[in-house]
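Need the bound structure for NAP, inputs here:
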Amino acid sequence: MKIVVIGGSGLIGSKLVRKLRENGHEAVAASPNSGVNTLTGEGLAEALKGASVVVDVSNSPSWEDAAVMKFFETSTRNLLAYEAAAGVGHHVALSVVGSERLLESGYFRAKIAQENLIKGSSIPYSLIRATQFFEFVKGIADFSTDGNIVRLPPALIQPMAADDVANAVGRIAMGSPVNGTVEVGGPEQFRLDELVRRGLAARKDPREVVTDPHARYYGVELSERTLVPADDARLGETRFETRLSQPRSNPEYTNPH
Ligand SMILES: NC(=O)c1ccc[n+]([C@@H]2O[C@H](COP(=O)([O-])OP(=O)(O)OC[C@H]3O[C@@H](n4cnc5c(N)ncnc54)[C@H](OP(=O)(O)O)[C@@H]3O)[C@@H](O)[C@H]2O)c1
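Answer from helper R.:
Posting the output first, comments after.
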């Protein structure tokens, strides 16, 4: 199949393109770097010609409230319209577990807007909601840092390896549309403050993580289970300790979402 990966140069996208090709598919990485811009529509008609599936693993370059909403709304509308014109039969998109519980944040309001546009379109779809990536732990610390102190609540979190996310997205992209939402998560739960403490210690980062039940996560006050997936979530295999003990094969990853 021809499978177009929007955001194919990103963390998940680049792993996904590799996996789809290993499985014998014609995977096309599409992003501004390769002349395809979902915000403006540039290059989309050409990229989607003959495609059976489109996977959207793009992300907004800005997380400012209005900018991120404009990114996910405009690019999703454009994508769905170009897909309808090209006869694409499956739209796959990556979202975040618990988005509807994180609506104090403009980023998650934008992810819900993206999901709703997909659910309301005529294109058969699969939505995959993943928990936070291991590669994102330093990004959480950076966002919550004041001086040398990182303040975080002890809420539960069930993070997963980016490789496991890409595997899950790939399996779904190669299958039939589920016309619904699939949740994926990591094999273990942690307390958010403890996870970040361990992640920073493994990098010999001198910042101190202070446990504060009222500290906010991207502007959101978390309750115990805000970030954890439902019981029927599909779980990745890679454990956080295993990831920490591997040489850093991924480029430094500090995006907050
Ligand atoms: N981080 C987490 O813990 C987490 C958890 C669950 C779900 N997610 C979701 O996972 C998705 C992918 O995240 P990621 O970390 O892999 O992203 P990333 O590494 O930041 O990559 C973003 C990608 O989006 C592309 N892009 C930016 N503007 C574009 C535009 N106008 N048109 C087309 N493509 C554009 C970029 O292309 P260029 O390289 O050409 O600029 C890049 O390929 C996001 O939707 C996010 O919400 C993240």
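Comments: Confidence is low (pLDDT under 50) at residues 250-257. Residues 149 and 208 are 5 Å apart (CA to CA).
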